[in-house]
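Per your request, structure below.
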């Protein structure tokens, strides 16, 4: 996909959704951090169901630490891997209080030093909470980037590298949210909505059909 098409691709996404937002519910960087810590192998709907009630009781590092793993468990036990996630939450809260004055750090290195936080999680926080032009490549973004020809790559790291090079600068801040939402609701893995896709004319996917079904998945 050449520069002209890439610019048109994002202009269409912007026209359809000028101010894209994460579907995770949060009111502070800390609340977002905890939500993203819970997000592996879980839907935003299930996470919001738990954090919506949890944050009424504890929405600061100290409050969550005081609640303890046993106290947190009822709010997150419907989420996959909740035991390890609960442990990471407690360890993260402890480090935030010990090393960062209870605040969420704003550098990738400091974020990745927190238990349970990898590069993808760090990128989500940097982009969504702090407005940095980063892209966290999840399964949706990986699929859209490869399928459309926007930023092909054999692994997550390569796709991230390509996206940072190929997304026009004026769209880079919001690209993360646009691509996630597009992959979640339109460019789906098993049954993409090609016939209703607003960027279909710009897409290089060769298996498009009017019904939106594909033979092989990415």
């Amino acid at each position: 996909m050449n520069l002209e098409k890439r610019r048109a691709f994002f202009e269409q996404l912007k026209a359809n959704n000028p101010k894209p937002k994460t579907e995770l519910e949060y009111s502070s960087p800390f609340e977002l951090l905890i939500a993203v810590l819970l997000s592996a192998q879980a839907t935003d709907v299930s996470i919001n169901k738990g954090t919506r009630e949890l944050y009424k009781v504890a929405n600061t590092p100290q409050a969550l630490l005081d609640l303890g793993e046993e106290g947190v468990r009822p709010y997150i036990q419907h989420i996959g891997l909740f035991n390890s996630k609960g442990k990471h939450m407690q360890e993260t809260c402890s480090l935030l209080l010990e090393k960062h004055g209870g605040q969420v750090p704003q550098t990738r290195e400091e974020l990745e030093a927190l238990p349970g936080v990898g590069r993808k999680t760090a990128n989500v926080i940097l982009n969504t909470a702090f407005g940095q032009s980063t892209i966290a490549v999840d399964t949706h973004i990986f699929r859209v980037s490869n399928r459309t020809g926007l930023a092909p790559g054999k692994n997550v790291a390569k796709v991230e590298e390509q996206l940072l090079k190929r997304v026009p600068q004026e769209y880079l801040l919001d690209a993360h949210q646009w691509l996630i939402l597009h992959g979640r609701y339109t460019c789906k893995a098993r049954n993409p909505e090609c016939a209703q896709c607003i960027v279909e004319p710009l897409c290089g996917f060769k298996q498009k059909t009017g019904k939106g079904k594909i033979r092989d998945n990415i």
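The mean pLDDT is 92.

Regards,
D.
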